[in-house]
Structure formats: C-alpha cells, structure tokens
Specification:
Length: 289
C-alpha cells in the first residue's frame, strides 16, 4: 500500500470513529447534566432575623460553612444599614436630615428607597413608609439622580415592613453571583425560590393549610394576631413583603379586590371560633398544585 493510500485510509477510519463516538459522547454528557447534586442547607440567626437557605451546589467549594458565613454577613450588613431601629443606619441618617435640600444617597440606600417607592405607588400611597405631621397623597420623599429630596423637613422614613423581603432578594443576588441556579431562601416568613431541588422536584412553599409549587417567584407572608394569615406571590420578595403587610390591614374582601386590581396572587385565611375561611385571588389559583 502506498503512503498516499495509507493516509487516505487513516482519514476514513478517523471520520467514521468521530461519527460513532459523537452521539455516544453527547448521550453521556446529557445523562450527566440531567441529574442535580443533592441540595445543601444552612440556617442561622442575626438578632431577630432567622434565615434558612437551601441550594444545589454549582461548585465543590460552595460548602455549608462558607455559605453560612456569607449569608450571615449579608443579613447583618443590610439590617444595620436599613433598619430605622439602628441609630447609625442609612435610613436613620436620612431621617436626621431635617431639610428639603437634596441629600446624596449611597447606591444601596437609593436602591432600597426606589423599591419602597414602587410599593408605595402600588398601594396608591397607603403603605405607611413615609410620615410627617400632615396628610399628603404625593410621596413625601423623591429620589432622582442619586439624590433624595423630602417634601418637608420633618418627613421620616421607616421601611422595616419590607426589610426582611429585601434581605431575601439580596441573598438571591449572592446566589446568582456564585452561579447557583437552584435555591430556596427564607428570612422569617419571607421566601424566594428558583429552579428545583432535584430533577422534576420543585421547591414547595407552605401556607397554613397546604403546600403548593411556586416557580422562580417570591412569597411575602404575615400573620396577624394568630387569626389571620396573608400570603402574596411576586417577583420581588421586598414587594411581596410590603404588599402582604398592607393587605393584612384591610378587610378580606377589600384586600382581594385590591389583589384583583393589581393582578397578583394572594391568599388570605381567617380563623374564627375554630373555623377557617379562605379567600383567594384569581391569579393565585394557577399556583395551587
């Protein structure tokens, strides 16, 4: 056999091998990718905030010890920056600014205020996050170009009612930065989920009656006097947190009417004399499993 014939034969064999091995390699790759590693879980407390995080590791170094340290740091930092109960928080600094002149905001405080303003607008100004000595329908704080301006010098800001949900959202950002695509995060009663815990096994969320599936959404929950539970589903845990607080202040029928106006999934359960009455918005029905 000439050298040219040998080269041609080698090329033919190589081509045939590629044709046979390529599908086999693809099958092995697909099989390996179709299974998820078993989920990990951590929990902890920072003062009165209790956090729980479950996740499917995307890398071997995403150990419970490392995740606990990082999550605890996020929770601690955000509470100290945005709780009005801390004298040196960013919100307290804004409240001490007794002027209608603009105040330069940190990027974090600007983001927090914008989320509060969005929730304020959704409730037609009834969310009690801004207060002063008079009653006004317009927002009492405006944010523009990294500046905050009060409508009156005595305006105060208190957004603790959406802080737990905001912390959940920021922990979700941490998960994304670490390339973690499957997780369930909760801080007190506020929850956010993404992906699934195992193949074809989504994360479950429980209310006082049943468990149901929520895909890539957040849950805001509040219990009032152990007799009323309000649950809201939204993309943002901070917004869901704020809306659940607001809806819990309304009569059930009015709360559901507002949920229909906003087209958001809401469930309300009222327990009285041992009997539970359940109200749901139409958007909630798609989340029942």
């Amino acid at each position: 056999m000439t050298s040219v014939a040998k080269v041609r034969l080698a090329r033919t064999v190589l081509t045939q091998c590629k044709k046979w091995l390529a599908p086999l390699g693809l099958a092995v790759f697909v099989s390996a990718c179709s299974e998820l590693p078993p989920p990990e879980a951590i929990d902890g407390e920072v003062r009165e905030l209790r956090f729980q995080v479950e996740w499917v590791p995307a890398h071997p170094n995403q150990t419970p010890a490392r995740l606990r340290e990082r999550v605890k740091g996020v929770v601690d930092h955000l509470e100290q920056q945005f709780s009005s109960e801390f004298e040196n928080s960013e919100v307290s600094r804004l409240n001490r600014w007794e002027s209608t002149e603009p105040l330069v905001l940190t990027r974090e405080l600007e983001d927090f205020l914008r989320i509060g303003l969005q929730a304020y607008d959704m409730t037609d100004g009834h969310l009690p996050v801004f207060t002063n000595g008079t009653s006004q329908s317009a927002p009492l704080v405006r944010v523009e170009n990294h500046l905050a301006r009060k409508s009156a010098a005595d305006v105060k800001v208190d957004m603790n009612l959406l802080l737990e949900g905001y912390i959940v959202d920021r922990i979700a950002d941490l998960m994304e930065q670490m390339s973690i695509q499957h997780y369930r995060i909760s801080v007190n009663q506020q929850v956010r989920v993404r992906g699934q815990q195992r193949k074809k096994t989504p994360w479950l969320v429980a209310d006082s009656v049943e468990k149901f599936v929520v895909r890539d959404r957040a849950i805001g929950q509040i219990s009032v006097n152990d007799s009323t539970d309000v649950l809201v589903i939204h993309r943002s845990a901070a917004t869901a947190n704020a809306l659940s607080y607001w809806l819990s202040s309304l009569a059930a029928e009015e709360a559901i009417a507002q949920a229909e106006r906003l087209r958001i999934p809401v469930v309300i359960e009222i327990r009285e004399n041992g009997v539970a009455t359940r109200y749901t918005s139409r958007a909630f029905q798609s989340y029942l499993s």
